[in-house]
Amino acid sequence: MQAKERTLVLIKPDAVARGLIGEIISRFERVGLKIVGMKMIAPNDEHYYHHYETIGKVATRRGKEVFDVNLAFMKEGPVVALVLEGIEAVSLVRKMVGSTEPKAALPGTIRGDYSHISYGHADNEKIGIPNVVHASGDSEDARQEVPHWFSESELVEYESRHEHFTQPKKRKQ
Fold it and tell me: Model-level pTM?
């Protein structure tokens, strides 16, 4: 059985401005993920640089112009940062949020239901792609992103009702 893991989700400025915070959070809760950390924050350049370049390698992979456009987009307003916990939480959240490019995100995913812009359009307009959420790309990213956004004292332990159905049961012998 897979162990519980934690992952980071950022509800981006476009979703915050559109009033989608509750809708997005409720999707994660309905599937049984547990919120163990949550806050609204307006990070500075240094914080975003560490997130998108030191961890995510955006400038390295996609170029400084893409990085700068993304940084400007992320600074348009606050984000809501969440740490979600559950069995295979990273891959589950990635499936739920859908493709990073909104145009390619399937209906039923968060990006597929709430965004539609293509990379081409964003590049032509020189805008950050409004894709509603960021989710850790893999377990290694999550292990780096969670402590970058949250101190240990900001994360809480508690038992959710969903855990009753996902934890191994002791069998009578």
Answer: 0.92
Rounded CA gap, 130 and 170, in Å? 46
| Cα–Cα distance for residue pair 61/67, rounded to 1 Å | 9
Eight-class DSSP state of 159: -
- What is the chain's pLDDT, residue by residue, as a tens digit (173 residues)? 567 999 999 999 999 999 999 999 999 999 999 999 999 999 999 999 999 999 999 989 988 988 999 999 999 999 999 999 999 999 999 999 999 999 999 999 999 999 999 989 988 998 889 999 999 999 999 999 999 999 999 999 998 888 877 776 654 55
Q: At what angle do helices 89-97 and 139-149 cross, to 10 degrees?
A: 90
Alpha carbons within 13 A on the beta-carbon side of 12: 23
How large is the angle between the packed helices 89-97 and 21-30, nearest 10 degrees?
130
**Identified catalytic residue from 121, 134, 148, 164:** 134
Q: Check if the beta carbon of residue 126 is closer than 8 Å to that of residue 71.
A: no
Say if residues 133 and 102 touch (Cβ distance below 8 Å). no
Our answer to whether residue 134 is catalytic in this structure is: yes
* Cβ–Cβ under 8 Å, residues 5 and 89: yes
